[in-house]
Amino acid sequence: MYRVASILVVTLTLSLIPAAANAQDWYDDFFFGWWDPPIIDEGMDLVGRDLNGTSLNGGVDGVQVTMVGMTSVWKDRKLHNLLLAGGRFFQASCIKSSGKGGVPNPGSGLLSTVKSTPGCAPQANSWMADVYFKALLSTGSSAWLRLESVRQDPNPKNQDVSLYKVSYTSSGKKSYLCGLDDSGNPVEAVALRGTWDQNEGTSTGGSWNGNASYFTFACVNAALGKCATNGYAPWRKVRPTGCTSDKCLVSLRNHHQACSRMMRADYCGDGTSYTVDGTDVNLYDEYEVRQDSLAWNIEGEWGADGAVCLTATRLSTVNPTCAAKLAKAGCGSTANFSSTTLLIAEFLPGAGTKSSSTKKTFASK
Protein backbone atom coordinates (compact mmCIF):
# COMPACT_ATOMS: atom_id res chain seq x y z
CA MET A 1 0.00 0.00 0.00
CA TYR A 2 1.14 3.52 -0.67
CA ARG A 3 0.51 6.74 1.12
CA VAL A 4 0.44 9.33 -1.61
CA ALA A 5 3.21 11.86 -1.41
CA SER A 6 4.26 14.84 -3.42
CA ILE A 7 6.40 14.49 -6.55
CA LEU A 8 9.82 15.92 -5.83
CA VAL A 9 11.56 16.41 -9.17
CA VAL A 10 14.79 18.02 -10.28
CA THR A 11 15.58 18.06 -13.98
CA LEU A 12 19.14 17.97 -15.31
CA THR A 13 20.50 18.43 -18.80
CA LEU A 14 22.74 15.84 -20.42
CA SER A 15 25.25 17.46 -22.68
CA LEU A 16 25.98 15.13 -25.56
CA ILE A 17 22.53 13.85 -26.50
CA PRO A 18 20.67 16.21 -28.87
CA ALA A 19 17.15 17.22 -27.87
CA ALA A 20 15.82 15.77 -31.11
CA ALA A 21 16.98 12.28 -30.18
CA ASN A 22 14.19 11.57 -27.68
CA ALA A 23 15.79 8.18 -27.23
CA GLN A 24 13.22 6.82 -24.80
CA ASP A 25 14.48 3.55 -23.29
CA TRP A 26 17.22 2.96 -25.84
CA TYR A 27 19.92 4.36 -23.54
CA ASP A 28 19.02 2.05 -20.69
CA ASP A 29 19.21 -0.92 -23.07
CA PHE A 30 22.47 0.28 -24.61
CA PHE A 31 24.30 0.36 -21.29
CA PHE A 32 23.03 -3.03 -20.16
CA GLY A 33 26.13 -4.53 -21.80
CA TRP A 34 28.29 -3.03 -19.04
CA TRP A 35 26.23 -3.78 -15.98
CA ASP A 36 23.48 -6.14 -14.99
CA PRO A 37 20.08 -4.54 -14.46
CA PRO A 38 17.56 -6.96 -13.03
CA ILE A 39 15.16 -8.81 -15.26
CA ILE A 40 12.29 -9.34 -12.84
CA ASP A 41 10.48 -12.63 -13.05
CA GLU A 42 6.73 -12.34 -12.75
CA GLY A 43 5.80 -12.44 -9.09
CA MET A 44 8.30 -10.05 -7.47
CA ASP A 45 5.67 -10.07 -4.74
CA LEU A 46 5.96 -6.65 -3.18
CA VAL A 47 3.06 -6.04 -0.84
CA GLY A 48 2.23 -3.60 1.91
CA ARG A 49 0.78 -0.20 2.50
CA ASP A 50 2.19 3.12 1.40
CA LEU A 51 1.23 6.77 1.54
CA ASN A 52 0.15 8.95 -1.32
CA GLY A 53 0.98 12.62 -1.83
CA THR A 54 0.22 15.66 -3.94
CA SER A 55 3.58 16.96 -5.14
CA LEU A 56 5.52 15.80 -8.19
CA ASN A 57 8.93 16.81 -6.82
CA GLY A 58 11.02 19.28 -4.78
CA GLY A 59 12.67 22.65 -5.05
CA VAL A 60 15.18 25.19 -3.79
CA ASP A 61 13.97 27.57 -1.08
CA GLY A 62 10.40 26.70 -2.05
CA VAL A 63 11.02 27.48 -5.73
CA GLN A 64 10.43 24.67 -8.23
CA VAL A 65 13.50 23.23 -9.95
CA THR A 66 12.70 22.83 -13.63
CA MET A 67 16.03 21.79 -15.14
CA VAL A 68 19.59 21.05 -14.07
CA GLY A 69 22.34 21.44 -16.65
CA MET A 70 25.05 18.87 -17.20
CA THR A 71 26.98 20.63 -19.93
CA SER A 72 29.18 21.91 -17.11
CA VAL A 73 29.37 19.27 -14.41
CA TRP A 74 32.03 20.22 -11.90
CA LYS A 75 34.23 17.69 -10.14
CA ASP A 76 37.66 18.46 -8.64
CA ARG A 77 37.74 21.84 -10.44
CA LYS A 78 37.29 20.15 -13.80
CA LEU A 79 34.41 19.98 -16.24
CA HIS A 80 32.86 16.60 -17.04
CA ASN A 81 30.15 15.34 -19.38
CA LEU A 82 27.95 12.56 -18.06
CA LEU A 83 25.14 10.35 -19.33
CA LEU A 84 22.41 8.65 -17.32
CA ALA A 85 21.10 5.12 -17.82
CA GLY A 86 19.40 2.79 -15.39
CA GLY A 87 19.63 5.37 -12.62
CA ARG A 88 23.45 5.43 -12.83
CA PHE A 89 25.87 7.95 -14.34
CA PHE A 90 28.38 7.16 -17.08
CA GLN A 91 31.06 9.24 -18.73
CA ALA A 92 29.70 10.64 -22.00
CA SER A 93 32.65 9.10 -23.83
CA CYS A 94 30.93 5.73 -23.38
CA ILE A 95 28.95 6.48 -26.54
CA LYS A 96 30.72 7.25 -29.79
CA SER A 97 29.41 7.32 -33.33
CA SER A 98 31.07 6.71 -36.66
CA GLY A 99 28.14 8.09 -38.61
CA LYS A 100 27.28 11.64 -39.60
CA GLY A 101 25.51 13.51 -36.86
CA GLY A 102 26.11 10.76 -34.36
CA VAL A 103 22.55 10.84 -33.01
CA PRO A 104 21.59 7.50 -31.47
CA ASN A 105 17.90 7.79 -32.30
CA PRO A 106 15.65 4.70 -32.36
CA GLY A 107 14.19 4.12 -35.80
CA SER A 108 16.59 6.54 -37.49
CA GLY A 109 18.89 3.87 -38.87
CA LEU A 110 21.85 5.32 -36.96
CA LEU A 111 21.99 2.66 -34.26
CA SER A 112 24.50 0.64 -36.25
CA THR A 113 26.92 3.58 -36.21
CA VAL A 114 27.04 3.81 -32.42
CA LYS A 115 30.13 2.37 -30.79
CA SER A 116 30.88 1.67 -27.17
CA THR A 117 34.07 2.22 -25.23
CA PRO A 118 35.60 -1.07 -23.97
CA GLY A 119 35.42 -1.39 -20.22
CA CYS A 120 32.89 1.39 -19.80
CA ALA A 121 31.09 1.19 -16.45
CA PRO A 122 29.02 3.42 -14.18
CA GLN A 123 30.94 6.03 -12.24
CA ALA A 124 31.92 4.75 -8.82
CA ASN A 125 29.84 6.07 -5.93
CA SER A 126 33.00 7.54 -4.39
CA TRP A 127 33.71 9.51 -7.59
CA MET A 128 30.18 10.95 -7.67
CA ALA A 129 30.60 12.57 -4.23
CA ASP A 130 31.11 16.35 -4.48
CA VAL A 131 29.87 16.64 -8.06
CA TYR A 132 28.10 19.95 -8.72
CA PHE A 133 25.16 20.47 -11.11
CA LYS A 134 23.65 23.80 -12.10
CA ALA A 135 19.86 23.86 -11.67
CA LEU A 136 17.41 26.16 -13.43
CA LEU A 137 14.52 27.30 -11.25
CA SER A 138 10.97 28.14 -12.28
CA THR A 139 11.69 31.82 -11.60
CA GLY A 140 14.38 31.85 -14.29
CA SER A 141 17.19 32.02 -11.75
CA SER A 142 19.67 29.21 -11.12
CA ALA A 143 21.28 27.39 -8.21
CA TRP A 144 24.14 24.97 -7.75
CA LEU A 145 23.26 21.51 -6.48
CA ARG A 146 25.89 19.45 -4.71
CA LEU A 147 25.77 15.68 -4.89
CA GLU A 148 27.07 14.78 -1.44
CA SER A 149 26.95 11.00 -1.55
CA VAL A 150 25.58 7.96 -3.37
CA ARG A 151 24.65 4.57 -1.98
CA GLN A 152 22.81 1.47 -3.05
CA ASP A 153 19.26 1.19 -1.81
CA PRO A 154 19.42 -1.10 1.25
CA ASN A 155 16.24 -2.90 0.14
CA PRO A 156 17.46 -6.24 -1.26
CA LYS A 157 14.84 -6.01 -4.02
CA ASN A 158 16.39 -2.71 -5.18
CA GLN A 159 19.99 -3.68 -5.84
CA ASP A 160 19.82 -1.71 -9.09
CA VAL A 161 18.60 1.50 -7.39
CA SER A 162 21.10 4.20 -6.40
CA LEU A 163 20.13 6.81 -3.81
CA TYR A 164 21.56 10.32 -4.10
CA LYS A 165 21.91 12.84 -1.28
CA VAL A 166 21.64 16.31 -2.84
CA SER A 167 22.13 19.66 -1.11
CA TYR A 168 22.31 23.36 -1.98
CA THR A 169 23.49 26.52 -0.23
CA SER A 170 21.36 29.64 -0.03
CA SER A 171 22.31 32.81 1.88
CA GLY A 172 25.18 30.89 3.44
CA LYS A 173 22.95 28.10 4.77
CA LYS A 174 23.00 24.53 3.53
CA SER A 175 19.69 22.79 2.88
CA TYR A 176 18.73 19.49 1.28
CA LEU A 177 16.86 19.30 -1.99
CA CYS A 178 14.40 16.68 -0.73
CA GLY A 179 14.18 18.01 2.82
CA LEU A 180 14.60 16.03 6.04
CA ASP A 181 12.76 12.99 7.33
CA ASP A 182 11.07 12.73 10.73
CA SER A 183 14.41 11.80 12.30
CA GLY A 184 16.15 14.84 10.86
CA ASN A 185 18.09 12.90 8.21
CA PRO A 186 18.34 14.14 4.60
CA VAL A 187 15.81 12.53 2.25
CA GLU A 188 17.51 10.99 -0.79
CA ALA A 189 16.59 10.99 -4.46
CA VAL A 190 16.64 8.63 -7.42
CA ALA A 191 18.05 9.81 -10.77
CA LEU A 192 15.44 9.34 -13.52
CA ARG A 193 15.96 10.09 -17.18
CA GLY A 194 13.72 12.73 -18.75
CA THR A 195 11.47 15.38 -17.26
CA TRP A 196 7.93 15.71 -15.98
CA ASP A 197 5.54 18.52 -16.85
CA GLN A 198 4.65 20.10 -13.51
CA ASN A 199 1.73 22.16 -14.75
CA GLU A 200 -1.83 21.44 -13.61
CA GLY A 201 -5.01 21.50 -15.67
CA THR A 202 -3.22 21.25 -19.03
CA SER A 203 -3.14 18.54 -21.69
CA THR A 204 0.50 17.80 -20.85
CA GLY A 205 0.35 18.23 -17.06
CA GLY A 206 2.12 15.40 -15.24
CA SER A 207 3.39 13.82 -18.46
CA TRP A 208 6.87 12.42 -18.96
CA ASN A 209 9.20 13.74 -21.66
CA GLY A 210 11.76 11.09 -22.50
CA ASN A 211 14.23 13.52 -24.04
CA ALA A 212 17.57 11.94 -23.16
CA SER A 213 19.18 15.37 -22.80
CA TYR A 214 17.64 15.77 -19.35
CA PHE A 215 17.16 13.89 -16.13
CA THR A 216 15.33 14.34 -12.86
CA PHE A 217 16.34 13.96 -9.21
CA ALA A 218 13.17 12.32 -7.90
CA CYS A 219 12.85 12.51 -4.12
CA VAL A 220 11.93 9.20 -2.51
CA ASN A 221 9.34 10.90 -0.29
CA ALA A 222 7.41 12.07 -3.35
CA ALA A 223 5.50 10.31 -6.11
CA LEU A 224 8.20 9.83 -8.75
CA GLY A 225 10.80 8.55 -6.31
CA LYS A 226 8.31 6.40 -4.40
CA CYS A 227 7.19 4.63 -7.53
CA ALA A 228 10.81 3.97 -8.55
CA THR A 229 11.77 2.50 -5.17
CA ASN A 230 8.60 0.46 -4.72
CA GLY A 231 8.94 -1.86 -7.67
CA TYR A 232 8.43 0.31 -10.74
CA ALA A 233 11.91 1.65 -11.52
CA PRO A 234 11.35 2.77 -15.13
CA TRP A 235 14.48 1.09 -16.51
CA ARG A 236 13.38 -2.34 -15.31
CA LYS A 237 11.83 -5.07 -17.40
CA VAL A 238 9.65 -7.91 -16.19
CA ARG A 239 9.66 -11.43 -17.59
CA PRO A 240 6.04 -12.64 -17.77
CA THR A 241 5.24 -16.25 -17.03
CA GLY A 242 6.09 -18.34 -20.08
CA CYS A 243 8.47 -15.73 -21.54
CA THR A 244 11.66 -17.43 -22.71
CA SER A 245 13.36 -14.70 -24.78
CA ASP A 246 14.20 -11.03 -24.49
CA LYS A 247 11.58 -10.25 -27.14
CA CYS A 248 8.73 -10.81 -24.69
CA LEU A 249 10.16 -8.78 -21.80
CA VAL A 250 7.87 -5.94 -20.66
CA SER A 251 9.28 -2.52 -19.78
CA LEU A 252 8.01 -0.95 -16.55
CA ARG A 253 8.41 2.57 -17.95
CA ASN A 254 4.67 3.08 -18.38
CA HIS A 255 3.95 1.36 -15.06
CA HIS A 256 6.12 3.97 -13.36
CA GLN A 257 4.22 6.75 -15.09
CA ALA A 258 0.86 5.18 -14.18
CA CYS A 259 2.06 4.90 -10.58
CA SER A 260 2.99 8.60 -10.48
CA ARG A 261 -0.49 9.50 -11.72
CA MET A 262 -2.10 7.21 -9.17
CA MET A 263 0.00 8.51 -6.28
CA ARG A 264 -1.25 12.04 -6.86
CA ALA A 265 -4.81 11.00 -7.75
CA ASP A 266 -4.29 12.67 -11.12
CA TYR A 267 -7.53 11.13 -12.38
CA CYS A 268 -7.90 13.30 -15.46
CA GLY A 269 -4.28 13.01 -16.58
CA ASP A 270 -3.81 16.78 -16.67
CA GLY A 271 -1.49 17.16 -13.68
CA THR A 272 -4.25 18.09 -11.21
CA SER A 273 -4.04 16.24 -7.88
CA TYR A 274 -7.26 15.22 -6.12
CA THR A 275 -5.82 13.93 -2.86
CA VAL A 276 -4.00 15.11 0.26
CA ASP A 277 -0.70 13.97 1.69
CA GLY A 278 -0.97 10.99 4.03
CA THR A 279 -3.88 9.14 2.42
CA ASP A 280 -3.48 5.35 2.46
CA VAL A 281 -3.61 3.56 -0.90
CA ASN A 282 -2.87 0.08 -2.22
CA LEU A 283 -1.97 -0.88 -5.80
CA TYR A 284 -1.10 -3.96 -7.81
CA ASP A 285 -0.38 -4.99 -11.39
CA GLU A 286 -0.75 -7.83 -13.86
CA TYR A 287 2.82 -9.10 -13.43
CA GLU A 288 2.62 -9.18 -9.63
CA VAL A 289 5.52 -6.78 -9.15
CA ARG A 290 3.13 -5.62 -6.47
CA GLN A 291 0.44 -8.05 -5.34
CA ASP A 292 -2.94 -7.38 -3.81
CA SER A 293 -2.96 -8.62 -0.23
CA LEU A 294 -5.57 -6.25 1.21
CA ALA A 295 -9.37 -6.48 1.08
CA TRP A 296 -9.89 -2.79 0.40
CA ASN A 297 -12.31 -0.81 -1.73
CA ILE A 298 -11.41 -0.45 -5.39
CA GLU A 299 -10.77 3.10 -6.53
CA GLY A 300 -10.14 2.41 -10.20
CA GLU A 301 -7.77 1.39 -12.95
CA TRP A 302 -4.72 3.42 -13.95
CA GLY A 303 -2.61 3.90 -17.07
CA ALA A 304 0.21 6.21 -18.10
CA ASP A 305 -2.27 8.97 -19.02
CA GLY A 306 -4.27 8.91 -15.77
CA ALA A 307 -7.28 6.92 -14.58
CA VAL A 308 -8.70 4.48 -17.14
CA CYS A 309 -11.91 4.07 -15.16
CA LEU A 310 -13.12 5.06 -11.73
CA THR A 311 -15.33 3.37 -9.15
CA ALA A 312 -14.81 5.92 -6.37
CA THR A 313 -12.46 8.69 -5.35
CA ARG A 314 -10.30 8.15 -2.30
CA LEU A 315 -11.57 11.43 -0.85
CA SER A 316 -15.27 12.24 -0.59
CA THR A 317 -14.64 15.98 -0.88
CA VAL A 318 -13.31 16.03 -4.44
CA ASN A 319 -15.11 16.12 -7.77
CA PRO A 320 -12.76 15.48 -10.71
CA THR A 321 -13.88 17.19 -13.89
CA CYS A 322 -13.50 13.89 -15.78
CA ALA A 323 -15.33 11.69 -13.24
CA ALA A 324 -18.47 11.12 -15.30
CA LYS A 325 -16.64 9.73 -18.33
CA LEU A 326 -14.51 7.46 -16.12
CA ALA A 327 -17.48 5.63 -14.58
CA LYS A 328 -17.60 2.19 -16.21
CA ALA A 329 -19.17 -1.14 -15.31
CA GLY A 330 -16.68 -3.78 -14.20
CA CYS A 331 -14.02 -1.24 -13.31
CA GLY A 332 -11.31 -2.77 -11.14
CA SER A 333 -11.48 -6.33 -12.46
CA THR A 334 -8.07 -7.97 -12.94
CA ALA A 335 -9.40 -9.22 -16.27
CA ASN A 336 -9.02 -5.64 -17.52
CA PHE A 337 -5.22 -5.59 -17.32
CA SER A 338 -3.88 -4.59 -20.73
CA SER A 339 -1.55 -2.12 -22.41
CA THR A 340 -4.00 0.56 -21.21
CA THR A 341 -4.85 -0.67 -17.71
CA LEU A 342 -1.51 -1.16 -15.98
CA LEU A 343 -2.39 -0.78 -12.30
CA ILE A 344 -5.43 -1.16 -10.05
CA ALA A 345 -5.65 1.03 -6.96
CA GLU A 346 -7.61 0.55 -3.75
CA PHE A 347 -8.16 2.65 -0.63
CA LEU A 348 -9.35 2.08 2.91
CA PRO A 349 -12.05 4.56 3.97
CA GLY A 350 -11.11 6.21 7.23
CA ALA A 351 -7.46 5.06 7.09
CA GLY A 352 -6.06 8.39 5.97
CA THR A 353 -7.20 11.90 6.73
CA LYS A 354 -10.55 12.71 8.27
CA SER A 355 -11.83 13.90 4.91
CA SER A 356 -11.27 10.43 3.43
CA SER A 357 -13.57 8.64 5.84
CA THR A 358 -16.27 8.46 3.20
CA LYS A 359 -15.61 7.69 -0.44
CA LYS A 360 -17.41 9.38 -3.29
CA THR A 361 -18.82 6.80 -5.70
CA PHE A 362 -19.87 7.13 -9.33
CA ALA A 363 -22.61 5.34 -11.20
CA SER A 364 -21.24 3.00 -13.83
CA LYS A 365 -22.30 3.22 -17.43
Could you please describe the fold and organization of this structure?
Helix 3 packs across helix 4. The chain is globular. It has one domain. It has five helices and 27 strands.
List keywords for this structure.
365 residues; mainly beta; 10-stranded mixed beta sheet; 6-stranded mixed beta sheet; 5 helices; 27 strands; disordered N terminus
Please summarize the sheet with the most strands: 10 strands, mixed
Question: Are there runs of 5+ residues with pLDDT below 50, and where?
Answer: 2-24, 32-37, 42-52, 97-115, 351-358
Tell me the number of helical segments per DSSP (H or I, 4 or more residues long): 5
Query: Mean of the pLDDT scores?
Result: 76
Quaternary structure annotation? single chain
Helix content: under 10%
- Computed CA radius of gyration, to the nearest angstrom: 20 Å
